[in-house]
Amino acid sequence: MDLLPTEEQQQILDTASNYLGNEFPVQALLTTAQRPRLNHDQLKQLAGMGWIGIGLPDTLGGVGYGLSEEALLFAELGRYLMPPSLVGSVLAARTAAVRGHDDLAHAILDGTLRVAIATQQSSAPATISPTVTGNFLVFEAEGADYIMLTDDGGAALVALSDLQQVSQERCMDPTLDLTCWRGDNTTTTCFVTADQDAIFLRGTVLISAMLLGIAEATLQRSVDYAQAREQFGKPIGSFQSIKHYCAEMSIRCECVRAMLYYASITLQQQPSAGPLDTSSLKALAIDAAQENANTAVQIHGGMGYTQEMDIHLFVKRAQVLESLFGSERFHLRQVLSAAAPP
C-alpha cells in the first residue's frame, strides 16, 4: 500500500496551504473579533473551490475525490485553525445526498446553507435517530441553518429553527461560539444509519486530520522559535533538551500522518475494517495535538503563556476537537474491544 500523496493530491495540499496562508492567517485571530471565523461570502468561496464536496462522489453532486483527499485538505484546515463546522458541512452534504434530499445537499455544497456541528454532553446519554433526545454542545450555531449530529449508530441533520431549550455558553476557545441544546424527541430533517454510510467514522478521520494540522503547526512554530531565540549567545535550538522536545513532536506528527493515510484508505476501500483504524487514529491524533501544543508553550518560555502569541489558540482548539466524534477515552475503549485484525 502506497501511503505517499500522489502528484494530484500534492497539488491539493499546495493550493490549500497557499490560499489559507494568504486569506486566513492564524495571527489574524489575535487582532480581530470576527465571529464566525467564516462569513457567508468566504464560505461560498470555499464551496466554489469544491472543498465541501471534495470527497463526495460526482453521482451525488460532489467533486468525486475520496476520503484520502478530504483528509489531506482537513489537515491543512486544522493547521490554520479553520472552524470545525466545515466538517459539519461536509458530512451534512453527504447525509442529505445519501437520503436523496438533492436540493438540501446542493444548497450545502454551494455554501448557501451554513451547518453547525454538535457533540453529546458526556454527563447524560443521548439518542440520535429519526428523532433526537439528549443534551448537546453545539459549536458555531450563530448564523447556522442546520446542526450536524452523529454517533456510532448514525447521523442526523436538525434544522436550527426546530431547536428549543437553547442557552448560550462561553467556549474555552475564544474563536468559537458555544450553545447548549436539549433535544426532546426533536424531529430530524434527515437521518442516515451507520449501515447506510459510515458518517461517524468519516467525521472521526476528518477531525483527526485537523488535530494533525495542530500538531504540525505547533511543531513548525517551535522549530522556528528555537532557531531565532538566543540564550548565552546561542540559538536555544542548539541545546539538547530543546532538540529532544522537537524530535518528540516530529515523531508524533509522523505517526499520526501515517495512520491518517492508512485509515482514510482502509475506510474508503473496506468500511468493515474502519472502526479499529479510525479509533486508533483519533487516539493518536488527540495525544499528538495536545502534547505538541503544550510542548510548544514550554519551548516558547515566558512568551508562550501570553495573549500576544498564537500558541494558546492551538492548545484550546485541540481540547475542543477532542470532544468531537468521541474522546480519547472512548476511542481507546473501542480499540481494546475490537476484534484482532486477520
Structure description:
The protein has 342 residues and is α+β, with helices and mostly antiparallel strands. The chain has a domain at 199-337: Butyryl-CoA Dehydrogenase, subunit A, domain 3 (Up-down Bundle), CATH 1.20.140.10. It has helices at 7-23, 40-48, 67-79, 85-98, 102-109, 199-228, 240-269, 274-299, 311-322, 328-337, and strands at residues 115-120, 127-128, 131-139, 146-151, 154-159, 166-169, 178-187, 190-193, 230-231, 234-235. The strands form 2 sheets. Strands 1, 2, 3, 4, 5, 6, 7 and 8 form an 8-stranded mixed sheet that branches. Helix 4 packs antiparallel against helix 6, helix 6 packs antiparallel against helix 7 (240-269) and helix 7 packs antiparallel against helix 8. The two termini are 17 Å apart.
User: How many β strands by DSSP?
Assistant: 10
Number of helices: 10
Q: Return the CATH topology of one domain.
A: Butyryl-CoA Dehydrogenase, subunit A, domain 3
Average pLDDT reading: 92
**CATH architecture descriptor of one domain:** Up-down Bundle
Task: Offer a concise description of the structure.
With 342 residues, the protein is an alpha+beta fold. Helices cover 49% and strands 15% of the residues. It contains ten helices and ten strands.
